[in-house]
Automatic annotation (TrEMBL):
Designated name of the protein: Uncharacterized protein
Keywords: Membrane, Transmembrane, Transmembrane helix
Transmembrane segments: 117-136
Region spans: Disordered: 92-112
Organism: Paracoccus chinensis
Lineage, highest ranks first: Bacteria, Pseudomonadati, Pseudomonadota, Alphaproteobacteria, Rhodobacterales
């Protein structure tokens, strides 16, 4: 099951929070929590993992402080507390389970092997496609016999 997370090793429980909007920037584009944290120079998934370990009120306070530092969304200047309160409700109730994190860690050594298998499959598919196209113009295909 852990192999399904090869392309996205981050906990899916964080997605609702990270993809939630914090407001519109000066150009009218919606800015998400993920984008906000990244623009602040933070790793969004790591920061979310740390927020989840805190009590709800402490997480809200910390998130409010982070949002107050973010200047790209003008409305956050006065509403960062309200936005932080609403966003903190989207945080998962508990951190990702250690068993799911161990599954991700144990799948890490398999990644090079998985990449090798993918490249092998792609190479075989390329050879089969080449045989299909080149094989169609072989003997007996169009000399009028």
């Amino acid at each position: 099951m852990a192999e399904l997370n090869i392309l996205n090793p981050n906990p899916p429980e964080f997605e609702q929070f990270l993809y939630a909007p914090v407001g519109e920037d000066r150009n009218g584009y919606v800015v998400t929590v993920l984008s906000t944290l990244a623009r602040l120079g933070l790793d969004p998934w790591k920061e979310t993992a740390e927020l989840v370990t805190l009590e709800r009120e402490a997480a809200r306070t910390r998130l409010g402080l982070l949002l107050s530092r973010f200047r790209d969304v003008p409305a956050l200047g006065s509403d960062h507390g309200k936005v932080a309160r609403e966003l903190s409700l989207l945080l998962p109730n508990s951190p990702p389970t250690p068993s799911s994190m161990q599954a991700d860690e144990t799948s890490a050594p398999d990644r090079p092997a998985s990449r090798g298998a993918i490249w092998t499959i792609l190479a075989i598919a390329l050879v089969l496609l080449q045989m299909l196209f080149v094989g169609g113009s072989g003997p007996g295909s169009g000399s009028g016999e």
